[in-house]
Specification:
eight-stranded mixed β-sheet; Rossmann fold; L-gulonate 3-dehydrogenase activity; N-(1-d-carboxylethyl)-l-norvaline Dehydrogenase, domain 2; EC 1.1.1.45; 8 strands; alpha/beta
């Protein structure tokens, strides 16, 4: 018997992230109950999940050892919160990114689950100490921040509340690993977590370079997609430094630390991301990819297909 057999995970929220989490957990053989407070929405989510799983199976990219039909047999939808939470050992909240909404969800959830049930939020930028502020037992609370789209991009940031028990981190880490994600542990909470802090640093400097007339939107994106992104798809910045000097990281720092400090000290202030600069950058990107839904949807589909291929290659 697999460790997942018969175990129940409740996903709260049936939007894009909720559906993605459901698919990830199903791939690991878990029973998944998906809940939405809007009547009929969770049921509609199952229709979309069925479509995606069947397409993935056809493309031979379905995760896990179960067929699409077997995974779908583990999925059920609910409009009643108490019923959705019955029997669950893990709750993954995936409602929209608004603090009050998330706090209300966890207040309601806590009334229907036992003390041993892990309460996890999908928030991408809200601090655990704020998300779980109204929860009575904060020791079983944790952030599990996925990267969109989670089915192809496996990283999950695990961020503890200051009161989170180490065992809760361990259980969540084990679960995420078991269903094929790539969890990373943050040792304490910090605004933006790790991924967005790194991402925002890249966005800020890219924005400044375009804003200051150094490079075009098209070319700064090529700097990432055809340059840094090529190696960052397989190794991170610290390993990159370690490999980019004959004798490793210590040698790299000896060679390049002064240059890094000089360049970093030349960075400008945090951009406003508004006004004339924002209008000009928006004009450039829209010339490359128009912002109507037809073009954006096609580009997102292209992104997901490329990520699917990259995931297959990395596997």
């Amino acid at each position: 018997m697999s460790s997942s057999e018969g175990k129940i995970i409740t996903v709260i929220g049936s939007g894009l992230i909720g559906r993605s989490w459901a698919m990830v957990f199903l791939s690991g053989g878990y029973k998944v109950k998906i809940y939405d407070n809007q009547p009929g929405q969770a049921e509609k989510a199952i229709i979309e999940i069925r479509k995606q799983l069947e397409e993935l199976q056809h493309a031979q990219m379905l995760r896990g050892s179960l067929t699409a039909a077997q995974q779908l047999s583990l999925l059920s939808s609910y409009d009643d919160l108490a019923q959705a939470l019955e029997g669950a050992f893990f709750v993954q909240e995936s409602v929209f990114e608004e603090l009050g909404a998330k706090q209300s969800v966890f207040q309601a959830v806590e009334q229907h689950v036992g003390e041993g049930v892990v309460l996890s939020s999908s928030t991408s930028c809200l601090l655990p100490s704020n998300v779980f502020a109204t929860v009575k037992n904060k020791t079983r609370c944790i952030i599990s921040h996925p990267v969109n789209p989670p089915y192809y991009v496996r990283l999950v940031e695990l961020v503890p509340h200051p009161e989170t028990l180490p065992a809760v981190m361990d259980v969540t880490y084990t679960l995420m690993t078991e269903v094929g994600q790539a969890p990373v542990r943050l040792k304490k909470e910090i605004d933006g977590f790790a991924l967005n802090r790194v991402q925002y640093a890249i966005i800020a400097e890219s924005w400044r370079l375009v804003q200051d007339g150094v490079i075009s939107v098209k070319d700064i994106d090529l700097v990432m997609s055809e340059g840094l992104g090529m190696r960052y798809a397989f190794i991170g910045p610290i390993e990159t430094m370690h490999l980019n000097a004959p004798d490793g990281l210590e040698d790299y720092l000896r060679r390049y630390r002064e240059g890094m400090k000089r360049v970093l000290s030349s960075f400008g202030p945090v951009p406003e991301f508004s006004g004339e600069a924002a209008a000009n950058i928006n004009k450039e990107i829209c010339e490359l990819i128009p912002s109507d839904q037809e073009h954006l949807s096609a580009r997102r589909e292209r992104r997901d297909q490329l990520l699917m291929g990259l995931a297959k290659l990395k596997k």
